[in-house]
Design a protein that fits this description.
The chain is built from ten helices and no strands. The chain is an all-alpha fold.
Length: 209
């Protein structure tokens, strides 16, 4: 009998990799299909009626929008009905976008993606671009930029260069609008690098076909 000895660190890495793959597979199995649009529409209507006073308050300013979004998030964590839970998170994401609360928007989208089979990146990109397009002042753009960079990195890690480039372009446009020349130069360079990586990735993909 021949015994092959592997470094403990290598064996530990393999064990951790297997555990991650098993966890990912189990997580995918536990995720629910996206509910039918009609059932979600009905749930949204019921939610707006149940929280009518909060929705009225939310019309008065972004702070109240943020407050209502967090309340809907908390309700979603306790909800067992799939359509209602999806509707609660959908409404929370919309309100967080209107309130320009990028960090809570990202975490809420991830909560939705943990529960339902949705395109997490597509939702993040759409709403982060919306927030960026509504950012008017230089002083308020740093948190948005940091969030967009993290999601762009997530897209690149998943080989979704088109989504990464969408976000990077939105950052550049935001910098131009807020007259942040340093930000524009920085992200023009990042875009150029990412575009080259995207072309190299596509070249490899084409060569494998």
């Amino acid at each position: 009998l021949i015994m092959y000895r592997f470094p403990i660190s290598s064996m530990l890495f393999v064990a951790l990799l297997v555990a991650v793959l098993i966890a990912d597979a189990q997580g995918e199995k536990n995720r629910l299909p996206k509910p039918e649009s009609e059932s979600v529409k009905r749930a949204v209507k019921d939610i707006r009626e149940a929280y009518a006073e909060d929705y009225n308050d939310a019309e008065q300013g972004t702070r109240n929008k943020h407050k209502l979004a967090l309340k809907l998030n908390a309700a979603a964590e306790e909800e067992n009905d799939g359509a209602v839970q999806f509707a609660l998170l959908k409404e929370a994401i919309r309100l967080l976008s209107d309130a320009q609360q990028v960090e809570d928007l990202i975490s809420t989208t991830e909560m939705m993606a943990d529960r339902f089979k949705i395109d997490e990146l597509k939702i993040k990109v759409y709403f982060l671009k919306k927030i960026a397009s509504e950012t008017k002042t230089k002083s308020s753009d740093r948190m948005t930029v940091d969030a967009m960079q993290r999601v762009a990195d997530q897209a690149i890690a998943q080989d979704q260069y088109d989504k990464a480039l969408e976000l990077l372009s939105a950052v550049t446009s935001m910098g131009e609008r807020t007259k942040d020349r340093k930000l524009v130069r920085e992200y023009e360079n990042i875009m150029a690098t990412t575009q080259r990586e995207a072309e190299q990735f596509q070249f490899v993909q084409d060569a494998q076909q």
